[in-house]
Task: structure prediction
Amino acid sequence: MTHIPSTHTDFVIEREFDATPEAVFMAWADPEAKRRWSDCHAEYTTGYRLDFRPLGHETHRVAYPDGRIQEIEKVFFDIAPARRIVFAYDIRLDGRRLSASLVTVEFFASQRGTRMVYTEQLAYLDGHEDRALRLRGTEEGLDKLGLELAASTSVH
Result:
């Protein structure tokens, strides 16, 4: 079998939100809120669980109409309320690990409310490469986070 070397990349996404760092952090910590804004395949999701604590896990399982099964598992390493979240995650498709990532999310008070900085470092495995798709999907999720925050602040 031919050895295919891993490839590496990273990206940083910044967002400004009209909400306090505490409110933005809670949108990551609350299981129902997190699922609403982060589930990009809601119509195919067959399992979701969030245990938001250091060494806790977040799991997400998707069954696509064509029979493929995608699984994402996260492990939280550092959680500093309203300041920082550090986690690692992998993506598997039909049991084959496609990538592993380390993510740092930081929250800074700003004039508008919160400046959030999302930094992801990726290792692609065995020839898989989807940087543009991963970046677009992450940006769409963070856009949905902004909508989630707007909806929650308009209720209060």
User: Anything to note?
Assistant: The chain has one domain: 7-43+79-155. Residues 86 and 123 are 16 Å apart (CA to CA).
